[in-house]
C-alpha cells in the first residue's frame, strides 16, 4: 500500500461503561464468526465529496466512536473460550491516511479495503472499526470504513448512516447491548426465550431431519462462496408483488422456498429467515447486532407461485415473532432433540434479505423480451473457497447496480456447488416465469 502512510490519533468519549454477557444478537453473529473462521467484516469504500479534509473524516470517526456504544465495545474471552462484552466510555483510535502518489486513488482504496477485510479483528485488543482516507495531491478523495460484524447488522448500519448524515446530537434511544443483556435475563426476557424455544422445539420434533439429499461433492476446501448478479430479479419482483398485493420481500422469500423445493425435491421447505428485530420494544433505532435467524416451515405443494406467495405472507409472521432467543440455548435444544430422535436434525438453511428493494427505473412493467434479456445478462461466479466446515447453506441478497446480488455460502459437503448454482438460477427462472404468467406453477414442468 506504499510508504506514504500516517496515523491521525482520534480520541473519543461516550456514555456508558461496563461488563456483561453477550446480547443474543452478539451471540448469533459470534457463532457465525467462529464457524466461518473470520470477523465477517462489513462496510466498504466510497469517493469523498470535493473539499473534504482529513480533519473532517477524523471528526466523523470521533463522532461514530462516541455516539454508538457498539463501536466502543470489546470482548473478554476466558480460558474456556467463553466471551463477554466490555463497553468503554472513552479511548483512542487512529484514522489511517494513505497518499496515492501517482497511483489511481480508487485502486489504492481497494487495496486498503482488501487488507482491512483480510486481517481478522482482535476483538479483545482492538476497536471493531477500521477507517482510512486516501489522499491525492493533498486532497482527501476516498474513504475506507470496515467494521467487525459484532458492531451492527444491516438495519443498524442504515440507522448509523442516517444519523451520521444528520449529525444527530440527541441522546441515543433504545436498549444498547449492555441493557439488552440485562433485559434478556429478566423475567420478561426469560419468557421470550422460553416461547421462542418452544416454537423451535415443536418444529424440530416434526420436520424431516434432512434438508437436502446427501452431497457427493467432497472436494476441499469445502466452504465455497458464490455471487450471482441478477438484473431480472430486480425487474420481476415488483410485478409479482403488485399482482399479489404483497411486498417484494415476501415475494423473494416465497421464490426462495419454491426454488429450494425444486432443487431438493422435499416438502415442506424448512429454512431460517434472518429477522432484523427492529419491531421489538426498545430496539427500533439501535445500532448494534440484534438480527437473528428464525425458523419457518412452508408446505409449498403443487400450486401456483401466487399461492406460494400468499402462503408465505400468512406463515412467516410466526417465525419472525419467535426470532429472538438465546442462541446457546437453541444449540442445546437442537442437540437434545437430535439425540432423542436418533438422527441429526438439520436447520442450517438460511435466508438473509439485506436489500432495500428500490423499484427499478422503468416505464411500466417489463415485457417478456426485456425480462428474458435481463435473465440472459445474469452472471454467476465462484469468488472464494475457504477451510471451514459449517454444514450450512447461507444465502444473502444485497442491492447491486441494475439488479440484485445473491451471495451464497455453501459447505459443499452439505449442499453441492452444482446445486448451489442451480438454486440461484432456478430462483431467477421462477421469478421470470411468475412475472410473465400469473398461472406459473411451483413444481417443475
Automatic annotation (TrEMBL):
TM helices/strands, residue ranges: none
Organism: Kitasatospora sp. CMC57
InterPro entries, per database record: CAT-like_dom_sf, Condensation_dom
The protein's name in its UniProt record: Condensation domain-containing protein
Any one GO molecular-function label of the UniProt entry: catalytic activity
Residues of the Condensation domain: 58-352
GO biological process: lipid biosynthetic process
